[in-house]
Amino acid sequence: MTMRFDLAALRADPGRPFSLSQDVDLPHVEWQGETLRVLGPVHVAATAICQEGEIILRMSVRARVRRTCSRCLVELVEEVAEDGTPELHPDEVDGSYLELAPFIVAALRLGLSPKPLCAPGCLGICPECGADLNRERHREGCHGQTKRLDPRLAKLRELLDELPSER
Ligand SMILES: [Zn+2]
Ligand SMILES: [Zn+2]
User: Fold this and answer.
1) Dist. CA 164 → ligand 2 center (Å)
2) What share of the chain is helix, strand, coil (3-state, %, to 5)?
3) Separation of 137 CA from ligand 1 center, angstroms?
4) Distance 66 CA to ligand 1 centre (A)
5) What angle (nearest 5°) sits at the alpha carbon of residue 78, between those of residues 30 and 144?
6) Residue of 32, 68, 86, 113 with fewest CB within 10 Å of its CB?
7) Helix intervals (H) in 17-66
């Protein structure tokens, strides 16, 4: 994958935004010990500008990533949309080009959900009997059969799942 800005051109024309829009091939992304498959190209739009001698980069990354539901383990496709202004370290802008590859990977990782769900109300797998509660009932003798999830607790669980985890 090659997507980059010519730093000399940027510096020669301060205040002028330079834009790039490209489909980038990135078949896999490493994320928290997992190798996730990226389906199709990653759509990247980037703008760079030189302001008061500093390079400012803005990026928008769109991708489809194969994930596994964090509750029921079914496969799903997560649509990743991440927009940001990555911080540039001096050594990233002291060569001839500002290479975007590392920023694309970083944006993709940032945009991935820590707890992907096949559906907001996914019932998951019973930790006791192993039944996939989206498709079947608890197995014979499972204590989960007698416990019904209080709707207020279900809401709480959803909220907890939405809390950002450590990245
Ligand atoms: Zn699920
Ligand atoms: Zn059960």
Assistant:
1) 28
2) 20, 35, 40
3) 15
4) 14
5) 100
6) 32
7) none
- Least Cα distance to 149 among 167, 127, 166, 165 occurs for 127
Percent of the chain with pLDDT over 70: 89
What's the gap in Å between 155 CA and the centre of ligand 2?
20
Ligand 2 center to 166 CA (angstroms):
30
Considering only residues 154 and 114, tell me which one the structure prediction assigns the higher pLDDT: 114
Indicate whether 131 pLDDT > 60: yes
Lowest mean pLDDT among 5-9, 88-92, 95-99, 143-147: 143-147
Measure the N-to-C terminal CA separation of the chain; round to a whole number of Å.
25
Ligand lying nearest the CA atom of residue 74: 1
